[in-house]
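Researcher: Hi, I'm a grad student and pretty new to this. My advisor asked me to get structures for two proteins we've been looking at. I'm not sure of the right format, so I'll just paste the first sequence and hope you can take it from there.
Model: That works fine. Here's the first sequence with its C-alpha cells right after it:
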Amino acid sequence: MSECRLCPRDCRADRENGRRGFCGVAGNNIKCARAALHLWEEPCISGNTGSGAVFFSGCPLRCVYCQNRDIAGADRGLEITEARLAEIFLELAQQGAANINLVTPTHYTREILRAVIRAREQGLTLPMVYNCSGYEKVSTLKMLEGIVDIYLTDFKYMDTEAAKAYSHAPDYPEVAKAALAEMVRQTGAAVFDEAGMMKRGVIVRHLLLPNHLKNAKGVVKYVYETYGDRVYLSLMNQYTPLPGMEAYPELNRRVTKREYDRLLDYALSLGVENAFIQEGETAKESFIPAFDCRGVLPE
C-alpha cells in the first residue's frame, strides 16, 4: 500500500502513510458502510433470502451520476480489520445470505482476499460475488482466481466521450473489455443450482442513461457478439438523477419507457436470450440502501 496500483487509475498513492488514492481511501484498514441482506440484486443473486451485501467505502471510478455517491468518496463508513470482515461474512451466512456480495471492492482486494481465506477456514462455503464497476485491472482480477465465484460487473460505456465526461475515464471501454475477458476466463459458462441460484459465472450489467441509447446498444452488441450465452446481461432502467445533476442537463431526468423498450427490442434483434430486464416503474431512490453502517460492528 506504499504505492497503490490496484486499479486502472494507477495513482500510486502512499496509502500506507495516509495518502488518499483516487478512490478516496488511505491506510491499511477497510472502510465499510453497510453489511446486510440485500434483496435488490438480480433474482439469481438475491433469491428469497437476500444477498449478503457488504458495501465498501470509496470507489476508483467516481461517476458524476453515482447512485451510491454517499460512500463513493470514502467519507462515510467505519474502519474495520480483516478479522472483523471475516466475521461479517460468517454473520451474513448465519442470517441466511445466498452468497457474499462484495460491493465496490477493488481498492481493498488484498484485505478481502485474506478475509475470505480466514472465513473459509472457519466454515464459510457461500459463493463470493465481486460486484464492481467494470473498471478493473486484469492483474488485480488474477489475484481473485479461486476466490471469486461470480462476477457481477457493470459495463458502462462503449462511447469514450461519455466515459470521459461522466467518469473521467476515457480508457473505460478498452479497460472493461480486457477485464470482462479475464472474468469469463476464470468462471466459464454460468452454473446454477436446482433453485435457479447462480453458483458460478458472469452477469454484465448496463444501466441505461437518458439520451444515451446508442451507447447502450454498443455495449449490448459487444458483449453478446463476443460472449454469446456464456454471460448473462442485466439491462437496467432504474437510473435516478440525484441533486447536483443540473450541470449535466442531458442526464437530469429519468429514462423514458420508449428509450428502454428500444434497448430491449435491439437486444432481442441480436438474439439475446440470457438477460434480466426491469419491468414497470423502477427508477426511485428507494433502490439506494441506507448507508447507516448496519452490520459493520459487532452487536
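Researcher: Oh nice, that was easy. Here's the second one.
Model: And its structure:
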Amino acid sequence: MARTHARRRVRTRRRIRARLLTAAAGVTALLTATGCGAADMTKQSSPYANVGGTKSVTLSVQSWVGAQANVAVAEYLLDHELGYHVETVQVDEVPAWDALSQGRVDAILEDWGHPEQERRYVKEKKTIAPGGELGVTGHIGWFVPKYFADAHPDVTDWKNLDKYAKTFRTAESGGKGQLLDGSPSYVTNDKALVRNLGLDYQVVFAGSEAAQIT
C-alpha cells in the first residue's frame, strides 16, 4: 500500500448510491433555487442573477470525476435545451449543503450520504428537497493492483490482509500497512473498518481522487 511505488499500493474508492439535491423553492421543474444568505466558499453571487429576463443556474461541482461528469451533462442540457446560463462552483461535500440551503448554489448533483446535513436542512429547516436518485448504485471497495493479486490471490480476502501489511508499509503509515484514501473530505468508513476488523493498517489520505488513482 505504498504511495511512492506502484507495487506497494492499495487503493480504496468509494462508490455508494448518489442522489440529486435541490433547494426547496423552485424556479424550474429540474433545478430550483431558494433564499439568500452567505456561505464562505461562494460569497460572490452570479452576475447574471439580477439581469432582467436572464435565467441563471449555479451548480455545485464535487471534486471527483463522476460528479464532474454529472454536472457537465446537466450544464449542457440546461444551456442548449432550456436556455439557462449555467455557472459552476467547486465546493467540498459538507459546505455544499450550507451553500445550497443559503441559495448560493441551486443544486448538488451527487451526494454520498450526509445524515446530519440531511436531517438539518431537509427534515428540520426544509430549505433543501431531494431531487431523486441518479439511477446508479455504486459500490464501496478496497482495491489492489492486478499483478499483485495475480501473484498473491489470497490478498483479495480481507482476512489475509495482515499477511501483507509489511509489504504495504510506507513512511506515512507509521509502521503499519498503508490503506490509501482520496480526500479527507470524502465520505468513507475505512478508519472504522480497519479498527473494527483489527487490521494492521493505517489510513493515509492522498488528498484527492486524482492523486489517489495516480
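Researcher: Is there anything I should tell my advisor about the second?
Model: You could mention this: The chain has six helices and nine strands.
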